[in-house]
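Q: I'm writing up a methods section and want to include an example of the input and output format. Could you take the sequence below and give the corresponding predicted structure tokens, formatted cleanly so I can copy it straight into the document?
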Amino acid sequence: MDLQLTGKRALVTGSSSGIGAAIAKQLAAEGAVVVVHGRDKARTAAVGGEIRAAGGDSFEVIGELTSDTSANRVCAEVDSLLGGVDILVNNAGGAGGRNPARGKTPGFFDLMPEDWVGAYEHNLVSAVRTIKQLGPGMMDRGWGRIIQIASSAATVPSTVNNDYAAAKGALVTLTVGLSKTLAHTGVTANTVSPGMILTPQTLADNSHKEAWLRVYARSRGWDDSLSIEELEQQWAKEWNVPAGKAGRVENITAIVSVLASPLGGFVTGANFRVDGGENPSVN
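A: Here is the clean output for your methods example:
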């Protein structure tokens, strides 16, 4: 299928690794000119280099999105490189705003107020900054796609990481309000909410990073010598995931690519849950 993305200009924030890198590579493979964004110069350059080696067209921009000054500089640099942006994928986020002393999976009462503020800064306000800087240009040109990458935690929060879940939930709400603001402009706004996605990094099993599922298996007392596929099935059963497995980055990039394309123009204000059925409710 031709997604008609040739020549479209895209910024994917937080695309120096993981899901963001996969989205950037897929959009480039579909013909878009892509800006890879990150905070680490070497990792960001590596993704851009992979895109160009595969025959794609890309640039790299480095910078934080958690301050007005830095985010404005990033967006200005992107505008300068591309002469405007047609597609904005707000992928940057995660638990980076939380004090590392809280650990990776803090419970509600382990979190301090500053952790909640940090989560919102990284996941919600960073997206607001890029939208405010790059959205008006899309509106002026009469065409654009704004896509937020949220999380299944936005609609199925658990007993841990509530700061992250709340921030991602706010991102879904932001998108719905934004879609109404963008009515009749030719610009759409949607959210994609991944469940557990095993990225190339989390699947790695080498001297640098052990496969995440093996680490998880040991934490649950499972036999961590089982194959990744068998561990994945155990994980899905424990977490009640009807698909019976975790996702892969390709499951996310496919949805994002369609939403970013002209073919996705009749979809706006929607939240696409790519979570293997983890959320049991009607969408």
